[in-house]
Structures are given as C-alpha cells and as structure tokens.
Amino acid sequence: MMIDDFNELPIHEQSRIIEMAWEDRTPFEAIKLQFGFGEKEVIQIMQHQLKLSSFRNWRARVRGRSTKHTAFRNPNVLRGYCKTQYKIRQNKKR
C-alpha cells in the first residue's frame, strides 16, 4: 500500500514531501521525480497526514493551480520556487 511506503521513509523525507506539497510553486512532477509519489499518491498522503480542515484548505489551494503542474506552467519558469521565498531548513524530529 502507498501509505505504508510513505511511512517507511525517514521522518525528514516524509516532512519534505509534505512541505513540497504545500509549496505553491513546487509541481507534483518534482515530488514524483525526487520521491516516486505521483499526484494521486501525494493527495492520499496529505489526506492521511493532515487534519480534515487542513486537507480541505490544501486541496482548495492546489486544485486548478497551474504552478503545481508542469504541463500548465509558463515554459519560461525553470525554477521550483521563488528565489526570495523563506525556506525553513531545520526539520524537527518527532
């Protein structure tokens, strides 16, 4: 099962997948390339990992967003995130 595969990952990789899914400018294809989870799997992961209200907020943000799908992106955009975007580099351990 896909959730079992996700749960077998180290905590820092689980955290990174969720972080990438929340980022507006990180396409699902980048998550697939780096971790092997496609859009449908990421949706299932987020549904399993988030509270219901947080999942609904995330789905509302992601649905139809052109930056989350490379096929809909402007071909001039070559980066995954804004250069000035603040990034948290330290993942907390559970």
Question: How would you describe the overall organization of this protein?
Answer:
The protein is mainly alpha-helical and 94 residues long. It has one domain. The chain has helices at 2-8, 11-22, 28-35, 39-49, 52-62. α4 (39-49) packs antiparallel against α5 (52-62). The longest helix is centred in the first third of the chain and has 12 residues, at 11-22.
Morphology call: globular
The total beta strand count reads: 0
Mean of all residue-level pLDDT scores? 81
Query: Ends: how far apart?
Result: 23 Å
What Rg do the Cα atoms give? 13 Å
Mind describing the biggest β-sheet? Answer: none
The number of distinct helices, counting runs of at least 4 residues, comes to 5
Helix content: 40-55%
Helical/strand content category: mainly alpha
Order of helices and strands: HHHHH
User: pLDDT under 50 segments (min length 5)?
Assistant: none
Number of domains in the coordinates?
1
Strand content range = under 5%
